[in-house]
Amino acid sequence: MRAVELPVASGDGHEASLLARIPDSPRSALLWLPALGVAAKHYIPFAETLAARGIAVFLHEWRGHGSSNRRTGRDCDWGYRELFADIAASEAAMLAHANDLPRSLGGHSLGGQLACCSLALAPQRAQSLWLVASGAPYWRSFPAPTRWWLPFAYRFLPWLADRCGALPGRRVGFGGNEARGVIRDWSRTALSGRYAATGVDVDLERGLATVQVETRAVVLAEDWLAPHGSLRFLLGKMPAVTARIQMLDTAAPGVRADHFGWLKAPDAVIEALLRAE
């Protein structure tokens, strides 16, 4: 297995590193998109375990985090439009090492949502879709009592980001230091149930309806941030997709099956994903 760090440039001055774990004889490649506010390095155990199973894994870095040369603030903002461009740049860097391999696109939480939207924008990007602890944030797709207070949170977070110049996610317990534009685009979906992004002229909802890829998804039983209903709502936007969904009651002995716990012990999630092969 090779540990590789590939430079990625998006064309607007943004630069980051694409962390990769590449087996000696890979049988496929996966471009993995992290959760909101989570640096790519936290998925290295996930990548190394998959690489040991013959899958080359490339870990995307979100703008504003980890190896990214940008940090958001009042004078530095972006939204989904820029994140889509960054994903395309990571894909280009990956193809230099995996052009002849079957390709999967996947992600955790927001990463899974934007993986779906990326396929809506470019259906040829991958032959399969992997989702872990991911689902649309639409408030009506959550069970009670969570859905009763979610609309208030979805309006408060963009207001707070605008007031502070960026969302202080670490202080409020949601994401990291997040760009105002990202939070506005995210909250639009959370309140309306529809995917759209400022500056993106493509109809994402129409694009999602045309996605036709083999799909695998893992739901964590104690994950209130991405419950089964939110995943079903997201998958419902892609009627041509037949998804294999695995529910995990535990991530590992002593590790809760929640939104982030599985990162400490990714083996059960990986087994669930590969079980669908």
Highest-level CATH class = Alpha Beta
Q: How many strands appear in the DSSP assignment?
A: 10
- CATH T-level fold name: Rossmann fold
Mean pLDDT: 95
How many distinct helices?
Answer: 9
Radius of gyration: 17 Å
The share of residues in extended strands comes to 15-25%
State the major sheet. 8 strands, mixed
Q: Could you tell me how far the N terminus lies from the C terminus, measured between alpha carbons in angstroms?
A: 22 Å
The oligomeric state of the chains shown is: single chain
The secondary structure category is alpha/beta
Widest β-sheet, arrangement of strands: 1-2-4-3-5-6-9-10
Helical content stands at 25-40%
Shape: globular
- Low-confidence runs (pLDDT<50, min 5 residues)? none
Using the 3D structure, state the CATH architecture: 3-Layer(aba) Sandwich
The fourth-level CATH homologous superfamily is Alpha/Beta hydrolase fold, catalytic domain
**Strand/helix succession:** EEEHEHEHEHEHEHHEHEH
